[in-house]
């Protein structure tokens, strides 16, 4: 089972992804940890990434998903802002998607509270500008508590898996 948790920075992808991975006994990967040094440096300086910056990173993540599927699956937290990015990560038709979305002001406050993260709050506008709303998967509003979001995600995954079999 491959599960991808998407959304702009600050929506709680890591929190929900870790919760799902622990509940299902799957390994968790945070896409942020797979950025090349050049991407991290660029974002640390407040510059958004472009498609060319993202392509090697997305391909590495797709390869990670392919390898993870061989050993039973994984949960990946990844912004996957554009549909074209999600198509690269869709390594098979069975990928399950959880999309986190919420109010810009709430996300802004969360990002300001984060310490030691290269993605600065000032880049949030570029993420919202790039975000393409998907029309599939579970859409979770981040105004809920993390526990409520996790429970809703797990219900969705149980239903999705049972209807696919």
UniProtKB/TrEMBL annotation:
Keyword ATP-binding: yes
Protein name: Gluconokinase
Pathway the protein contributes to: Carbohydrate acid metabolism
Record-level GO cellular component terms: cytoplasm
InterPro entries documented for this protein: P-loop_NTPase (IPR027417), Shikimate/glucono_kinase (IPR031322), Therm_gnt_kin (IPR006001)
The keyword Coiled coil is assigned to this record: no
Domain of life, source organism: Bacteria
UniProt keyword terms in alphabetical order: ATP-binding, Kinase, Nucleotide-binding, Transferase
Catalytic activity line of the entry: D-gluconate + ATP = 6-phospho-D-gluconate + ADP + H(+)
Organism listed in the record: Algoriphagus ratkowskyi
Entry's EC annotation: 2.7.1.12
Alphabetical list of Pfam families matching this protein: SKI
Single Gene Ontology BP annotation: carbohydrate metabolic process
């Amino acid at each position: 089972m491959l599960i991808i948790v998407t959304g702009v920075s600050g929506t709680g992808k890591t929190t929900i992804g870790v919760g799902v991975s622990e509940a299902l006994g799957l390994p968790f990967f945070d896409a942020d940890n797979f950025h090349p040094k050049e991407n991290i440096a660029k974002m640390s300086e407040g510059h958004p990434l472009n498609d060319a910056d993202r392509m090697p990173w997305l391909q590495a993540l797709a390869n990670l998903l392919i390898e993870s599927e061989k050993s039973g699956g994984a949960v990946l937290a990844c912004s996957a802002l554009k549909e074209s990015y999600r198509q690269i990560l869709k390594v098979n038709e069975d990928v399950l998607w959880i999309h986190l979305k919420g109010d810009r002001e709430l996300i802004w406050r969360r990002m300001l509270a984060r310490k030691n993260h290269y993605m600065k709050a000032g880049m949030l506008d570029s993420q919202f500008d790039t975000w393409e709303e998907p029309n599939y998967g579970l859409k979770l509003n981040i105004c809920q508590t993390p526990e409520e979001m996790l429970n809703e995600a797990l219900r969705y995954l149980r239903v999705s898996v049972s209807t696919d079999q």
